[in-house]
Amino acid sequence: MEAKPYLGFDPDEDLGGATIKEVSDFVKTNTIYYLPVFKKMKDFGSKLSFNVTCLFPSLFFANRKMRGWAILAVFLSVIFAIPEALIYMVESSALPEQSSLYHLVESNMALFEKLGIICNAADFVVRLLFCLFGNRIYFKYIVRSLKKIKNDGGNFMAQKLASMGGINPTNMIVITLIKAGVALGITMLGIYLFEMLNLIAALP
Predict the structure, then answer these.
(1) What gap in Å lies between CA 101 and CA 104, rounded to an integer?
(2) Nearest-5° Cα angle at 142, 37 to 155
(3) In sequence order, which residues have a C-beta less than 8 Å from that of residue 139 and are 6 or more positions away?
(4) Each residue of 156-193: pLDDT tens digit?
(5) What is the pLDDT of residues 7-49, one digit of tens each?
C-alpha cells in the first residue's frame, strides 16, 4: 500500500507559523513520529509528550542541529557529575595526596557521597524534563528556524533548509568530544582555583 503524503494531513495546514509541508521538509527523518506530535500540540495546545531519545539530551539536540540546547545539556551533565568525579579522583589517586582538594574530599567523603546522590537525582530529573518537553522545544525551534529562512528569502532557501533542518549524526561525535573537553577544563580550572585560594588564605 502506498504511504499517504504527509501521513494524510493537509500539507498546507498551518501549525503556528509553518505549514505541515514546511515542517515535514525541515524534519526530514522520522516524520511519521513528529508530525502527529506537532499537530497535537497545535490542535490541543499540549506541551508534554515523551521522547525517549531525550534521555541523552546533548546527543538528541546535537543530532537535530540545536547547538545552544546541546551545549546547555552538556554543562548541566558535567556540573551534576562533579561530586562523583571528585570521589573517583581521590579513590583512584588521580589527585595528588598532598593537594588541598584531596584532603578536603577525603575528610568529607560522606558529604561528597550525599552530594553525588543529590546530583544524580537532579540529573535524572533534568533528563526526564527533556524527555517530556524535548518535542516542544524542537517544535518551537523548527517554527522559529522556518520563519527566519522565509524572512531571509533569497535564492538559497533550499540550501538554508538543508543546513538547518534534518539530522547530522556527526554532531553527536562533536558534542561528545566537547563534553569531554568541558569536563576536563572545569576539573583543571577548579583544582587550580581551589589551590590558589588556599595559598592566598595561608598568606600572613
Answers:
(1) 5
(2) 135
(3) 15, 37, 38, 41
(4) 677 878 788 999 999 999 999 999 999 989 888 888 88
(5) 889 999 999 889 999 999 999 999 999 999 999 999 998 889 9
